[in-house]
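yo

u said u wanted the structure for the complex thing, so here. seqs first:
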Amino acid sequence: MPVYYEDVEVGDVETHGDYEVTREEILSFAERYDPQWFHTDPDRAAEESPYGGVIASGWHTAAMTMRLLVEGTLAEAATVGAKGVDELRWPEPVRPGDTLRIENEVLEKVPERPERGLIRARTRTYNGDDEAVFSMIGNVMYLRRGDD
Amino acid sequence: MPVYYEDVEVGDVETHGDYEVTREEILSFAERYDPQWFHTDPDRAAEESPYGGVIASGWHTAAMTMRLLVEGTLAEAATVGAKGVDELRWPEPVRPGDTLRIENEVLEKVPERPERGLIRARTRTYNGDDEAVFSMIGNVMYLRRGDD
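structre next:
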């Protein structure tokens, strides 16, 4: 059963996981999309980086979060994509060996058009020590049933 | 020569490119991180999607933008990563065959700490038809020379 705009309630909270972060995936994403040394060079990162070792690209963390969202909250959602994201933050680094999970909370519904509405939801990503490593407010377009 | 906080001026504008977007890369990124049908299923997307065909995951567009930033504006920058991003938008979809370039404009400098400062810059990504397909305001931490 698709989840339409009308099926989503402000205050809905869901958690989804887990995503196991490997060193290989951190390096391979960063080499392709974010080849800064603190993402791609474990030796230099161990010696020179304020993080004490290689950390995931922030865009990789966003992408892993999206994977958990798509498998979880959005799995049955009747969406046609997102308009954008606000207040995207990376409060703590993501490291090899971390296990990530997400919490998604619906903040606001905006009817917008007869055929679709906007769902504003805050997604927070946590590591195995319950530290928030990522957060954002997404603006996702949901189709409306049209029967109300 | 590393580019420190002191070397960046409000109003600086740079453009960098190009990035050729292939169908293979759109599908492969989406299968891994954003497996929604309008990113992964060209046949269904051609028939059912409002976009008329498969489009890149918004996180893929962000990642390709980051690649252009890292090769361009950030290539010599003395940064230790970003705190976050505001006002991230995807005004138009990215499609197979698109050629992307970025424009980066420095909006604000915040001294923050003796050893580092924050550079707020707007990055816009354009396709070959000069349509903006992505924009964001990044908050990047630059090291300070410490000689001023």
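Chain B touches chain A at residues 29, 32-36, 38, 49-50, 55, 57-59, 62-64, 66-67, 70-71, 74, 79-90 (CB under 8 Å). The radius of gyration of chain B is 17 Å.
cya
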